Structure formats: C-alpha cells, structure tokens
Amino acid sequence: MSIIKKQDFIDSVADALQYISYYHPLDFVQALEKAYLKEQSQAAKDAIAQILINSRMAAEGHRPLCQDTGIVTCFVKIGMQVQWESDMTVQEMVDEGVRRAYNNPDNPLRASIVSDPAGRRINTKDNAPAVVHIDMVAGNEVEVAIAAKGGGSENKSKMVMLNPSDDIVEWVLKTLPTMGAGWCPPGMLGIGIGGTAEKAAVLAKESLMDPVDIHELIERGAETTEEKLRLEIFEKANKLGIGAQGLGGLTTVVDIKIKSAPTHAASKPVVMIPNCAATRHVHFHLDGSGPAELTPPKLEDWPEVTWEVGENVRRVNLDTVTRADIADWKMGETVLLSGKLLTGRDAAHKRIQEMLNNGEKLPVDFKDRFIYYVGPVDAIGNEAVGPAGPTTSTRMDKFTDMMLEQAGLMGMVGKAERGPATVDSIQKHKAVYLMAVGGAAYLVAKAVKKARVLAFEDLGMEAIYEFEVEDMPVTVAVDSEGNNAHVAGPAIWKARIEELDAKMKV
C-alpha cells in the first residue's frame, strides 16, 4: 500500500503545469521539424519556423509558449491499493495545484476560466477549477496525465452520432475543412469512437495525451482497426492542403490519435478534438516517495531553425499609415508593423457595442487605427508585456462591420480566417486583415516595446491596451480588395498535392 500525501500531489500538479507552459513535448518538436523540412509552401514553412523558434525561446526563457495558457484537464488513475493522507478531495487538490501554478510570480500564467458561463461569465482569477477525470485501477500508484488546452483549438471540437454503416474517414475529411485555422495547425487530431456521446469525447481528449508516433506506425505498418484508421486519416487529411495556420501547405496534421470503446449496436458516436501548435501535456506517477520529478529537456534537442523576412517585406509605420497606403497591400505579403497598435477582443468589443447602442462616447478613438485581437499574459521583470500571440479572429466577426463603419477602424490583426460576411465588409470599407502566427506568442511579445491600458481595465487581459511595436511580423490575409489567403492558399495546395500524386503514379 502506498500513502500519497496531499502536499506531494498539489506540488506535482503545480510543477507540471509550470513545466508544460514553456516546454513542448520533444516528440511534438521533432514532428514539427519533419514538417518544416518537408514543407514546400513558403507561407507554411515560415509559420512553422516561427512556431519552432518560439518553442525554443519559451524553453530558454521559462515563459509561456502561448498567451492562452489554457483550461486544465487532468486524468487521474488511482491504484486500488493507494491511501491518501489528505483532508481534500482529488478535485480540490488538483484545483489548488492549478491556483499555485497560475499565480506563480516567476512565471504567471493567464487566468482564462470564467464561472457562470451562461450568464455573467466572471473570471475566477486563478484558472480553477480544472476538468478532472478519475479512474480507479489496479496497483499502488497514482498516475496523472495533465494538459492545458487553449480555447482556440478546444472550440473547434466536433461531435457526430453516425449510423453504424457510416464511414468515419469520410466524416473527418468533410468536417476538418469546416474547422478553419482557429485550432492553429499543424497539430494533432484526437478521435474518440464508441461508448456514448460523452464517453467518445473523453476518449478523444485522452488520446491527445499520447506521444507523436505516426512515423513509427508508418514504418512498421498497421495491425489494428484503429491503427489503419490513423494511417488513412493522416494521409488523406494532409492531402486537403490546409497547411500551417490554414495558409496552404503539405502538413496539416502531425499525428492522428484514436481511442475507442464498445458501443450500442444502433450507435456510432464519434468526437474529434484538435490539439494546436502549442500542444502541452505531461505524465507523472506518484508512489508515496515524494512529489513527481520532471526532467527538463535539453535545449540542444531543439532544431536550429532560423527565420528571415524576405527581400520584398513591407515595413509599415502604424502612426502614419493611410488608407491609400493599405490599398497597395496584396494578399500573402509579409508586413512588419511598427508604431502604436490598439488591442481588444471579445469582452471589449461587446462593451463597445453596448456604448455605441446607448449613444455613449467611446473611451478610445479607433478612427484609422489598427486593432490586435489579443489577451496577453502579465509581464514580469523588464518585459513590456508577457506572451501575446493572436486569438481566433472569427469570434470578432459579428462586431467587424460595426468597428469598421461606426468606429472607423482601418485594419485588424488576429489569428486564422474570417467569415465570408466579414471579408465582404473588409472589402466594402477598404480595410485589411493581417494574420499573426498562432503558437508564436513569446516571439510576438518580443516585438512589443511598451504597453499601457487605455480602457476597460476591469476586464483584465481583455482590456484595451496600446502596444508600441517594432517590426511585428504579420501576413496580409485579406487585402482591401477582399482577396483571402485562407481560401486561396488551401485551394492552391490541394491542387498541387493532387498534381504531385498524379506524377508519382506515372
């Protein structure tokens, strides 16, 4: 019998969450390196390069890989011979570990959890509670698999109740393109099959805790139904041409994970959950001998990847840029932004809408300005701002016409695609939408030289800031004529992949 002490468990959870905030799993880094070396799309290759550089910087600086430090999911398998020395439940101990990790002054993590989700949505300030799954298993140890899952990828989860005769691969290939790029590909897809609706979802989430091993599976060959599905989906998903950040390319997924369970004869529940480019998870065991020891990876295990902007890069001064200037910008161009950049996301946009509807004067003049959709991590030391990567732009789509027409905004910076109506609005108002790389938050933050809150300070990370940036790299995703990189890029690369396949068969 093992006796697990409360403090050992709490400390292990807190240490694990700090660890995964800045260390990618090395198997994922190695998979990204393979994708980088293989990639032929320059836009996708540049995006993967930024993700890999950001990964190394986060590991070196012990700062978050992504500004969205996630909702914590914890799978706890408790041996039947384990005894607890604790006056707290497992849920309470996990939550205490979360609080300590997210409020760590040396590396504060962003608190993103809100209570009363159907109502006032009040931030809990400490990222608790976590989502905890508990299983009783044989043995005298406690096994913990813990992850921090960002909202951008979690929001792209899909669920379907298929008929028993329906094709799972067909559903995946039909569904994946509808998920857009808000989940920050390239990443992994976790697929749960069977059980009931909620069981399939848990299976999908748990599958994402496994290491990247698709290339080993390709080499040895599939033996089980699940392995055959993994290989088929991996091959066909990458032929869709979605590519890194949805810009078009050879690699959309670096692995496919599948777990299944027996189900009702009339049912075939399937859940698909993506893991983004900021994949964060770790496993540890407790046997009563003390807290878990997590061995840091060696920095030399990261690939030596550099990223240089091309000769045709456009340098822009945000303080002097005009609408006539942005009319010359073309879809797919790399732009380096310098000057004053406003920020704002969901809560700020909602409040702006309420003020405009009430005829109130806005606290910030948005006319002919650019806004960055971001919720940064708190700064430490001499940082102007903590990791500050883009959030998913589609959540701001319903406010875009208002911001362009009533507030006078000229440009937006965010992550992933915009909806068709938003693209039409951008074209109508001769504005532009620029895309920063999701999964490169610490790298982006290095371009921010000063930051101050201008309005809505009570919203915390969702307040309106003014950043002073220097050479912040972005891509023109939608130009003032409505040309859309997230439509053109994948279409071009899907066709090119089909051409490459046809040549190989000749």
UniProtKB/TrEMBL annotation:
Gene Ontology terms describing biological process: generation of precursor metabolites and energy
Domain of life: Bacteria
Catalytic activity field: (S)-malate = fumarate + H2O
Enzyme Commission no: 4.2.1.2
Keyword check for Iron: yes
Domain Fe-S hydro-lyase tartrate dehydratase alpha-type catalytic, residue spans: 11-284
Gene Ontology molecular-function annotations: 4 iron, 4 sulfur cluster binding; fumarate hydratase activity; metal ion binding
Fe-S hydro-lyase tartrate dehydratase beta-type catalytic domain location: 288-487
Keywords (A to Z) from UniProt: 4Fe-4S, Iron, Iron-sulfur, Lyase, Metal-binding
Protein family membership: Belongs to the class-I fumarase family.
Protein name, UniProt field: Fumarate hydratase class I
